[in-house]
Amino acid sequence: MSNDQQGITGDQWRQAKLIWDYHQMRHELRPVNVAIGLGSHDLGVAAHSAELYRSGLFPTLVFTGGNSPTTAEVFPRGEAVHFREHAIDLGVPAEAILLEPNATNTGQNITLSREVLAAADITPESVLLVSKPYMERRSFATARKLWPDVEILCASEPLEFDDYVKSIGDEKLVLDMLVGDLQRVIEYPRLGFAIEQEVPEDVHAAYESLIRNGFTSRLITS
Q1: How much of the chain is helix, strand and coil, in % rounded to 5?
Q2: How far is CA 90 from the centre of its chain?
Q3: Could you give the residue ranges of the DSSP H alpha helices within 90-151?
Q4: N or C: which end of the chain has fewer CB within 10 A?
Q5: Cross-strand partners of 153
């Protein structure tokens, strides 16, 4: 991996890898009632959701997501719509997929998916959230806050950090996203959006260093 292409140093790369590792929950997967594929710029979420469906882990799959500035051009009909089409192409029966096409943030992903499931007379006791690799922890913390009576498991495409960056094709964007998601893990509990997650000191130090070095395009501002 050529980290110099976008001015990323070896130290910054190691800091990003530390944050990447922290974001992943590494849950041991088992059969659940429902899976929810969280919309994003990463079509790998749909592909991995399809793979997990074919492995028999769940009978029903919800794709959730409208559009964001990073996805409107890539998925003009909305994230969930494109994810659904991709999953069907990969062998998931259309009747196994429910569609939630309006969510614009993770909280809405959870809340609106619950409404779609309720409308289909599905009240799950266990839910598998399928997300980008670096969004596992934030999606877990959000779902535990908004859906506390349901068991939450997390999964993502099993890629190493370098391979994931190559698959996205934009090193700076991925590092910005890692930093932005960690900021939300840290800040959202005090806003009532998520449960608290312990952040190890070395992860927090890596986060602060990357912010000082300008990996800030995905940060929220107060």
Answers
A1: 50, 10, 40
A2: 20
A3: 106-119, 136-146
A4: C
A5: 128
